[in-house]
Write a structure and sequence with these properties.
By secondary structure, the chain is mainly alpha-helical. It folds into two domains: 189 residues, Orthogonal Bundle (Fumarase C, Chain B, domain 1); 271 residues, Fumarase/aspartase (Central domain) (Fumarase C, Chain A, domain 2), CATH 1.20.200.10. The protein is built from 18 helices and nine strands. A hairpin with a 2-residue loop joins β6 and β7. The chain is elongated. The mean pLDDT is 93. This is Histidine ammonia-lyase.
Length: 496
């Protein structure tokens, strides 16, 4: 399948491209790219003073660059800005960044040649994945520069899983290194493609994780013999929230017909908050997720190159602006990271209620032979450690601040850092939920001996048991935890 872009990509489009779909442009999109390039060429021909085209960049914006040096300026920008550090981003993340960058150029305000866009589309088609270090972008420049390196035959990339030089990668996919023209180096490193692309991947992962969180919570609610009255259709609307309503409906549907729940009616007047407040915590995360989706789509609809090129070749306009700064995107990623960290924290509390013999009413630590077996005792330690790490990661990136480029860039919004933090929080949250899933299904095996579970939770149980067996201290527990993490990360839960 190929995603066709006419005017604006959505976050779902970018997420599909990240997973392997190709990206193609409509004729109207190609026309906008070509027309903007004609305007840049007119600016060069006229010798007009324009940031990053006939001048240096950043604190060197008042330094004029003569026509003969403009191509060299573009190349030099790429070389000097490609200074990322740390582990490389994965294939999915790099493809998302490239897709978001193409989307920015297609608005028709950047002024790069159509060849630049053709090369980037070819990268996606041939699965050519530039080496893109994960760290170093205070705003946006560094991640993008590492993709640009490969366009000019520098740097490194993976093609068909084999790492090679940028020049060899281009040859492997039938391309020659590009010689960049005026403004192209600046446009290739500019814009919010890195933070936007990473955010699109995070949204796709969040959507799946929230569905799993509801399904896993239902398994735990059943094992804990919860009082379903807290989730009644008449009760939850007293706190209006689309998220709360959605979670409540999912819990009621999945737990319908549970003999275990029926046997527990009236056992307690009121459940602990980690059980009773599931719609509130999961629902809040869903509400924040919906807001974040709108912000990321807004970002994809925005021109984030600086300067923006407009007007006509006869009357060119160059607008120096700050659209490459993305505070809203950083705020959205920070908020969603905090919400997911809270979902994981509540999951860890439910794990403790499943394994803790003081409150569970189940065999200690769900062990098959308590005493000689430890069961899930230490798995709960792992969940607690990951939740604590998420607590640290959830500190907002938006308030980090910083000064760069000789005081020219004296405000930094840190959307890329916020997106990277969100992805790290999701890593931990997937693992915490996998531990809860593992424990909840083990509890269901114990309880099913006397009462029948709901069809909705039994479907979850059966899906898990296709991948891992009942745990009896007979194998390394970490392997099972990783298997279920991969299940959560890569597959939707069975329908309620």
């Amino acid at each position: 399948m190929t995603i066709l872009i006419d005017k604006v990509l959505t976050w779902r489009d970018v997420a599909h491209v990240a997973e392997g779909e190709d990206l193609a442009l409509s004729q109207g999109a190609w026309d906008r790219v070509a027309y903007a390039r004609r305007i840049v060429e007119a600016l060069v021909e006229n010798g007009a003073r324009a940031y990053g085209i006939t001048t240096g960049v950043g604190a060197l914006s008042d330094t004029v660059v003569d026509r003969e040096a403009q191509s060299r300026l573009s190349r030099n920008i790429v070389m000097s800005h490609a200074c990322g550090v740390g582990p490389l981003l994965g294939r999915r993340e790099v493809r998302a960044v490239i897709a978001a960058q193409i989307g920015n150029f297609v608005h028709g305000y950047s002024g790069v040649r159509p060849d630049i866009v053709r090369y980037l589309c070819r990268f996606l088609e041939a699965d050519c994945i530039p080496d893109m270090p994960s760290k170093g972008s205070a705003g946006y420049l560094i991640h993008n520069a590492h993709t640009a390196l490969v366009l000019i035959g520098e740097g490194h990339a993976c093609v068909a899983g084999e790492r090679m030089t940028g020049r060899a990668a281009l040859a492997a996919i039938g391309l020659e290194p590009l010689v960049l023209g005026a403004k192209e180096g600046l446009s290739l490193v500019n814009g919010t493609a890195c933070s936007t692309g990473l955010a699109c991947v995070a949204l796709a992962r969040t959507e799946r994780l929230l569905d799993w969180a509801d399904a896993i919570a239902a398994v735990t609610l059943e094992a804990a013999g919860c009082q379903m009255s807290a989730f009644d259709e008449d009760v939850l609307p007293l706190r209006p929230s689309a998220g709360i309503a959605s979670v409540g409906a999912a819990l009621r549907s999945r737990l319908q017909g549970s003999g275990i729940i029926a046997a527990a009616v009236g056992r307690r007047l009121q459940d602990a908050l980690s059980l009773r407040a599931i719609p509130h915590a999961h629902g809040a995360a869903r509400d924040v997720f919906a807001h974040a989706c709108g912000i990321v789509d807004q970002e994809l609809a925005s021109v984030t190159d600086n300067p923006a090129i407009a007007g006509t070749p006869d009357a060119p306009l160059v607008w120096s602006e700050a659209h490459a700064v993305a505070p809203a995107l950083g705020h959205a990623a920070d908020a969603l990271g905090s919400a997911i960290a809270q979902v994981a924290a509540m999951s860890e509390r439910r794990i403790d209620r499943l394994v803790n013999p003081l409150v569970s009413g189940l065999p200690p630590f769900l062990a098959t032979d308590a005493g000689s077996h430890s069961g899930f005792m230490i798995a709960q330690y792992t969940a607690a450690a990951l939740v604590n790490e998420n607590r640290r990661l959830a500190a907002p990136a938006a308030t980090d601040g910083g000064l760069t480029s000789g005081l020219q860039e004296d405000f930094l919004a840190h959307p890329t850092a916020a997106a990277n933090k969100l992805l790290a929080i999701l890593d931990n949250a997937e693992q915490v939920l996998a531990i809860e899933l593992m424990a909840g299904v083990q509890a269901q095996d114990i309880l099913a001996e006397t009462n029948s579970p709901a069809i909705g939770t039994l479907d979850v149980h059966d899906m898990v048991r296709q991948h891992v067996a009942i745990y009896a201290d007979d194998r390394p527990l970490g392997h099972d935890m990783e298997v279920l993490r991969q299940l959560i990360a890569g597959n939707p839960p069975p329908p309620a």
